[in-house]
Amino acid sequence: MAALGNDFRPRDNSSALADTTIILKEDQETEYMVAKMFTIRPGFDVIGLALSIWLELRVTTGEKTSEAVRYNCRITYEGKGDVDKDADKNLITQTALYVLRCHGKKTFPEGTHVHIVNPIPLGRGLGSSGAAVVAGVSLANEVAQLGLSKDRILDYCLMIERHPDNVAAALFGGFVGSYLKELNPEDMKRREIPLAEVLPAPQGGEDTGLTPPIPPQDIGKHIRFPWAKEIKCIAIIPDFEVSTAEARRVLPTSYEKADVIYNLQRVALLTTALGQSPPNPVLIYDGMQDKVHQPYRKGLIPGLTEILQSVGPDRNPGLLGICLSGAGPTILALATENFSDIAEHLLGEFKKEGITCDWKLLEPAYDGLTVSHGSQESGRMTYADAGVSIEAGNELVQSIKSAVASTRRPGADAEIGGFGGAMDLAAAGYTEPPLIVQAIDGVGTKLKIAFAMDDFSTVGIDLVAMNVNDLLVQGAEPLTFMDYYGCSKLDVADASRFVKGVAEGCREAGCALVGGETAEMPGMYQGKEFDAAGAATGAIKEGRKILPDKEAMQEGDVLLGLKSNGAHSNGFSLIRKVIERHGLSWNDQAPWDSSTTVGASLLTPTRIYVKALMPAIEQDLILGMSHITGGGLDENIPRMLPKHLAAEVNVASWPVPGVLKWLKQAGNVSNKEFARTWNTGLGMVLVVKEEKVQSAVDALRSAGEEAVRVGKLVAKNDEGVILLGLEHWD
Ligand SMILES: Nc1ncnc2c1ncn2[C@@H]1O[C@H](COP(=O)(O)OP(=O)(O)O)[C@@H](O)[C@H]1O
Ligand SMILES: N[C@@H](CCOP(=O)(O)O)C(=O)O
After folding, report:
1. Ligand 2 atom with the shortest distance to the CA of 161
2. Residues in domain PurM-like C-terminal (predicted)?
């Protein structure tokens, strides 16, 4: 991935489409298509919600094969479950064949290869068949260039899946209401038009020339409702299938008037309630009650009634409502927070029935069906087709411009838009050739907490901290910084909050943000997730030594510690496990600090020690420094020591921050593990000659930092770090 340059814009055309181009080359292809789909609906046969799971087809034509392939269509599949690979049996290609036959074509174009990538679990009520039907109609539309509009595609879909909720949401995206128009008298007479989900089979095989029923115009109508941004969907997906056909067979053919009115009243309110911000849990919970399908389907899903009734907004903070997804067995809970709590509870309820489940946190997806073409001959590929928005990139540049400019410093103007970031060393005070030091790092899985909290304002500070603290321990002054932000779909607000955090970190470290890269790469990451990395460049003045000065270190040299303010940016994989095991959710009150939540406390940004340490470094008061990151005291302190010396550290000499104390105890983490996973309360450990300790402490104090004496250097036997006073941690 090219990440150089200082244009805060999406990657250049050729690299953004690199994945696609590779596919085309390998298969000698002419077409490329992606169909993105969704799932669910809480109003029986009426409303559907497209969710963030995409069914994707990669389609190529002109493939050379040694043997004849039926209907000219070779199918390959990756994803959930397994599907038929025969073109006339696979739901996607079967649907496409029906549409092709409606247009007088009996086969796919020669050498068609359809590669299906399907993450939607089959037969779980998450609309895999609706997605497949939309993809199938679109497939025919593309390979035969039929020019069908989305509205006309819906007509074809409705000939196959006669309930419009799933196909309409899959096709148009978002939270969608739909109805089927009554057929006009002429079409009513056309007995071949299926009234239920019956796929018109190619009677007598591919060569009969029979024309299947062409859909009447405008069979279905739809409208998109608003959806409040904070509402997310927890899908609890049991490990067994319920076929939609079976789940429809158990429904009655007629209903009591009272039950019909009950549902109508709720659906009418629900469509508005789900668009209101903040959402009203009472209206949504009541609005999601149902009397026309859930009660009849309980025989197919053990414990359904009890499971649905086991949660409510009064008992489960954050929960808004719950229903069967599609025809089941998946259960869909809508919530604004405490997602893992709610999910764990429902998993527990299913477990009582002996059923294991998977769960996913999903969000509405607004694109619906998208198609992108890539023709080698015409070179008609576009960013937009591939899911990359230049407009969003430009918007981001505008929104971060002033934050980036605020990091300017002597030697770097921090203006964005050029091809590279420049630094005038002389203007920065380095008149003789300095030693240049560089560092590169990421934020790690602390990002996961930011995703869960939907708060990206501080992880940029962590990114800068991880880099500049690494430069600092080598005695270098950080001068410039560059960041990399990779996502699947650029959310300008999120990316901007992130870059503003990076700028804040840079200001704190005194370095200029001279460039960055925002890479929008469809399909690389899940939903709104992103990855971030950064690199810092610093300098050491001519004539001064790069640290650590191992040769100058001796037994008896003093170890000073600078406090951390929590976990900083390391050990988050274990942190997440401990939090999960304790059934805490990110929005719960932090057990170690009643004034904040678990997530907010853990997002406390990593301390940046530049301003505190630079004066002492410049006065040559320090022989070596260790930035306590992944690997903790155990792994990081020996990195600054000569082979013959070890660090003897008295762990009682500094306070362990409340959060780390709690995590250690809650995770039953041994002292050894504690010292090699987390920083234990020290963000930096310094080696200082005894005679310079007072000056070093004074220099640090003048810069606002209190150093504590934590130990000394001793002759090394086995261990690089000897921890004394461990009982203090028990
Ligand atoms: N991507 C796909 N490719 C081919 N067939 C599919 C695909 N997705 C779903 N199907 C077909 O649809 C069936 C599931 O449909 P259905 O019972 O309606 O459940 P769901 O709730 O998942 O829509 C699968 O067993 C399979 O035959
Ligand atoms: N309204 C339909 C929806 C079926 O959805 P699926 O995902 O189970 O195919 C119904 O409830 O039957």
Report:
1. 9
2. 554-722
Superfamily of domain 228-363: GHMP kinase, C-terminal domain (3.30.70.890)
Query: In CATH, which of 3.30.230.10, 3.40.50.300, 3.40.50.2000, 1.10.10.10 is domain 18-227+366-380?
Result: 3.30.230.10
Ligand 1 pocket residue status of 116, Cβ below 6 Å: yes
For ligand 1, say whether the CB of 10 is within 6 Å of any of its atoms.
Answer: no
What residue ranges do the domains of the chain occupy? 1-13+390-546, 18-227+366-380, 228-363, 549-730
Structure tokens at 424: 């005038």
Model pLDDT, residue 32: 43
Average pLDDT, the chain: 87
State the sign of the Cα–Cα–Cα–Cα dihedral 309, 310, 312, 314. Answer: positive
Query: Given the CA of residue 130, which atom of ligand 1 is nearest to it?
Result: 23
Q: Which atom of ligand 2 is nearest to the CA of 46?
A: 1
Q: Which of 176, 210, 19 is nearest to 101 (CA)?
A: 210
Q: Is the pLDDT of residue 501 over 90?
A: yes
- Which of the ligands is closest to the CA of residue 117? 1
Return contacts of 87-90, CB within 8 angstroms, 24+ apart.
88/202, 88/206
Superfamily of domain 1-13+390-546: PurM-like, N-terminal domain (3.30.1330.10)
125 lines ligand 2 (CB under 6 A): yes
Residue among 53, 161, 166, 362 to mutate when testing ligand 2 (max atoms within 8 A of CB): 166
Does the beta carbon of 126 lie inside 6 Å of ligand 1?
yes
- The C-alpha atoms of residue 331 and residue 320 are separated, in whole angstroms, by 14
Average pLDDT over residues 97-126: 90
196-211: pLDDT as tens digits:
333 444 444 444 445 6
The rounded Cα 134 to chain-centroid distance in angstroms is 25
329 lines ligand 1 (CB under 6 A): no
- Indicate whether this complex's ipTM tops 0.85: yes
- Cα separation, 68 vs 168, whole angstroms: 36
552 CA to centre of ligand 1 in angstroms: 70
Does the pLDDT of residue 40 top 60, yes or no? no
Q: Treating both helix axes as pointing N-terminal to C-terminal, what angle do 150-160 and 128-143 enclose, rounded to 10 degrees?
A: 130
Q: Tell me if 114 CB under 6 Å of ligand 1.
A: no
List the residue whose alpha carbon is closest to atom 10 of ligand 2: 327
Question: How close is the Cα of 85 to the center of ligand 1, in Å?
Answer: 13
With a 6 Å cutoff on the Cβ, whether 122 touches ligand 1 is yes
Q: Is the pLDDT of residue 8 over 50?
A: no
**Residue 256: is its pLDDT beyond 50?**
yes
In whole angstroms, give the CA distance from residue 418 to residue 379: 28
- Does the beta carbon of 124 sit less than 6 angstroms from any atom of ligand 1? yes
CATH number of 549-730, picked from 2.40.40.10, 3.40.190.10, 3.10.180.10, 3.90.650.10: 3.90.650.10
pLDDT tens track for 392-414: 777 888 888 889 999 999 999 87
Cα 195 to middle of ligand 1, angstroms: 19
Integer Cα distance of 69 and 539 in angstroms: 65
Phi, psi of 71 (to 5 degrees): 55, 20
Asked if 557 and 648 count as a contact pair (C-beta separation under 8 A), the reply is: no
